[in-house]
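Hi R.,

Here are the chain sequences for the assembly we discussed:
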Amino acid sequence: MNTERTGGRALAAVFTGHGHPFELREFPVPAPGRGEVLVDITCGTICGSDLHTWHGRRQEPVPCVLGHEIVGRVVAFGPGAPRADLRGEPLLEGDRITWTLAASCGGCFFCTRGLPQKCEHLFKYGHSAIAPGHEFSGGFAECCLLRPGTGIVKLPDTIADPMAAPANCAVATVAAAFRLAGPVEGTTVAILGCGVLGLTAVAMARSLGAAEVIACDLDPERAGLARGFGAGAFSQPCGLLPDLRDLTRGRGADVTMEFSGSSAAVAGALAATRTGGVSIIAGTTTPGGSIALDPHELLRRMLTLRGLHNYAPEDLVVAVEFLARSGDRFPFASLAGGTFPLVEIGRAFESATGRPGRRVSITP
Ligand SMILES: [Zn+2]
Ligand SMILES: [Zn+2]
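And here is the predicted structure of the full complex:
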């Protein structure tokens, strides 16, 4: 651990806008203020949303430090900072942790109604402009200053950094999807989209005791991966309905989950859900596209349709416990896409762009 960081200087990769190279700049390491925790970053992984921003498909306030999938070690606590993680385990200097991708206030309209991810004062790591004294707000830097209202989870040593970092994004989002869907033991679950989220969902459905898991993706080459993560069947979108009919005596899936980001997959998920079933829409994170929906269908088939964006702190606990318990059972290591040092962040982003579905790691 690098306790000498306090009072010293540390590097951050500053993103100044699409088309500009990252700028590696040194800033004074802040002393943690009230409720804050200073963390030495050991690994940050490049998420699809970081790539969208880098390629100019998504706008973020600049200059900013990207990266929200982060693992690090506690360096120092500010006054009143949490001394226990979300599970109630004592938190000490040197502990290896990950944390929620956003900090919420705990007291606003949405926080008090079970939607902390929609907090009216939400702060998201890797998504906000830097300001003097607040430069260390993202994952692609040597350290990070955790804000009050951040949910922290200690990591068991058995989960390696490149696998642990996406816990606070993909895996926690998938855990939230299953929380919304309700128990899946003994059910048929259909997962649409076999990127990191979808494959994680296939594995989680399996580990939660789903009787059958069917994975669906446009790319037939993902069939092998999906089976490795526990899918009993794989279909391309055109074949999903007939395959599901065969599997379920014509009824459809009890639970469908959309992680593909295409509106056609949302329509496909609704069509694939059985009467009285639940459909979770979680992949369409950028606007655009619409689907035709006959309300009569919704009514007659008594469908429950739930949108999901981000997650609540409790979902991160489930995500880390899932990886600790079942991470070895599924080929999560095969999703790792290599490691680059912070000074080569530009190369890391190029590599991640060329390898969709893989998580590239950056280590300070
Ligand atoms: Zn992410
Ligand atoms: Zn709030």
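The domain at 3-158+328-363 is CATH 3.90.180.10 (Quinone Oxidoreductase; Chain A, domain 1). The longest helix spans residues 313-326.

Let me know if anything looks off.

Best,
T.
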